[in-house]
Specification:
By secondary structure, this protein is α+β, with helices and mostly antiparallel strands. About 30% of the residues lie in helices and about 25% in strands. The chain has helices spanning about 5-15, 30-40, 60-75, 100-125, 165-185, 200-210, 210-220, 230-240, 300-305, 380, 425-430; strands at about 20-25, 50-55, 80, 130, 140-145, 145-150, 190-195, 200, 225-230, 250-255, 260-265, 270-275, 280-290, 315-325, 335-345, 345-350, 355-360, 365-370, 375, 385-395, 400, 405. Bound molecules: nicotinamide-adenine-dinucleotide (NAD). Keywords: NADP.
């Protein structure tokens, strides 16, 4: 990745989206270092690390060294965004162009792309295949890595006076198309993103000498404005085979010996449990075994680590987040607890056993007071994953018309096989009772 414009936006987007690490490689080492510092500020992965290195993409040895150093420092190269490039410094017709200018454009833009794809694909080919997960249970195959190259609208069309840039960007497209079909058999995907005008230092240099260009761009682009680099970064990140929901980061606080408040841990939560035949994942973010909670010597944290929380804990609390695959529906169930439910991402139907139902969208909240219900993830019309968080607090017996309401889990209990305290429900579910 690169230390300016679109490259910087891509690095920041990946750091924010939970990447484990990034390496910024640019001709300008100081700029690369400045981007690593920015990435550290927005990174959401507790293990995140950002490195900077100098590279000249026109130099074979330099590209080889940068790629090798990334693989050795970060362990592997899952994603490569190749954004190093130059614009055409002057508007000139082909008949009036210098051969040296053409050579320079081809050297940086086309040869640079060739060397980056070649070195990165060579490393990726030797990496272990990683299976791609699917919330739908579909076969998505495996990947050794993904390379995204910045082409341009000039990879497709000609712009008056920009012949040398156009030639170099058409060459990039040819390389990308060939690399894509050459390497897919190794589990390596190669794609190009081809924006038109993007507000980066490259374009700013041109508009500084030709201010009338800004008005021309506005008149040509349907949205009537120049794109910004983050919009391009979103497209680049979309091409990486990452799961649909961001990794959750959990921070737990406590005390140091001097009695000051400190962070005890930063991680991704405890006890990830596959549910709904791999189409949902539960993540216990906290649980406590008694009220009030015993915090002495971090006993609460220790207890949560030692045993996975059952669906709810008598006299205690459970904070459970569940990622649902597209269109997943839970079985009807009732837990004798008060559940505070929040939609973190997506859209859900909350259906009660009376047949009444409500739609809950991101940020919506429900208090589920020991009632029989089920959840249906309808995010994106049933095409996208969704995420909900529940805090389950124990409650007393519920009597309706003098009769005590009973809890039941039905087939939901099967999802809790092996969890202490759930044996009776699990056995009943397995025996079809
Ligand atoms: N800005 C636009 O309007 C626009 C539109 C379409 C495509 N693109 C393409 O997107 C890519 C990124 O452009 P940007 O707008 O972010 O430009 P930018 O000028 O902000 O960034 C380009 C980066 O490439 C680096 N670089 C230049 N020569 C190098 C070399 N030999 N070795 C290593 N690094 C080198 C520069 O130091 C700079 O950090 C380019 O390929 C460009 O052609 C840009």
């Amino acid at each position: 990745m690169i230390a300016s414009g679109i490259g910087m936006a891509c690095a920041l987007t990946l750091a924010k989206d939970g990447a484990a690490g990034v390496m910024i490689a640019d001709l300008d080492l100081a700029a690369a270092r400045a981007v690593t510092a920015k990435c550290q500020q927005v990174a959401t992965n507790p293990m995140f690390r950002a490195e900077a290195t100098q590279v000249d993409v026109t130099d074979e040895g330099s590209v080889e060294a940068a790629a090798a150093s990334m693989a050795s420092i970060l362990g592997r190269i899952d994603y490569c965004v190749h954004c190093a490039g130059i614009g055409q410094p002057r508007n000139v017709q082909v008949a009036d162009s210098d051969l040296s200018e053409l050579r320079h454009q081809l050297e940086v833009n086309a040869t640079g792309t060739f060397l980056v794809i070649r070195e990165v694909a060579t490393i990726m080919k030797a990496q272990e295949l990683q299976q791609l997960s699917s919330l739908l249970g579909d076969h998505r195959g495996a990947t050794r890595g993904t390379i995204v190259v910045l082409g341009s609208a000039s990879s497709y069309v000609a712009t008056p006076g920009m012949g040398m840039y156009t030639a170099s960007k058409h060459a990039i497209m040819g390389l990308v198309k060939n690399a894509a079909i050459d390497h897919i058999q190794h589990g390596i995907r190669v794609n190009a993103v081809c924006p038109s005008w993007v507000n980066t230092p490259m374009l700013q240099k041109v508009t500084a000498v030709s201010p009338e260009l800004e008005e021309l761009i506005r008149s040509l682009v349907p949205i009537s404005r120049i794109a910004n680099a983050e919009e391009v970064a979103d497209v680049v990140a979309f091409l990486f085979p990452a799961p649909g929901l961001r990794k959750t980061i959990r921070h737990i606080t406590g005390y140091n010996e001097a009695g000051q408040s400190v962070f005890l841990s930063t991680d991704c939560g405890d006890r990830h449990r596959d549910m709904a035949e791999g189409r949902a994942v539960a993540n216990i973010l906290y649980s406590s075994r008694e009220t009030p909670i015993d915090l002495t010597d971090n006993r609460d944290i220790q207890a949560a680590k030692e045993a996975e929380a059952p669906i709810h804990i008598p006299n205690g609390t459970v904070v459970r987040m569940i990622d649902f695959g597209p269109n997943v529906e839970s079985p009807l169930h009732r837990v004798i607890s008060v559940d505070y439910g929040v939609v973190l991402e997506g859209e859900f139907r909350l259906i009660l056993d009376s047949g009444e139902e409500r739609i809950m969208r991101q940020g919506d909240f429900c208090v589920q007071r020991a009632t029989a219900h089920k959840w249906h993830n309808i995010t994106g019309g049933g095409t996208l994953p969704g995420r909900m968080l529940w805090i389950l607090v124990d409650c007393g017996d519920v009597e309706i018309g003098g009769e005590k309401m009973k809890g039941y889990l039905g087939t939901l209990a099967k999802e809790y096989v092996g969890v202490e305290g759930m044996e009776e429900d699990v056995n009943a579910a397995l025996e079809g009772k």
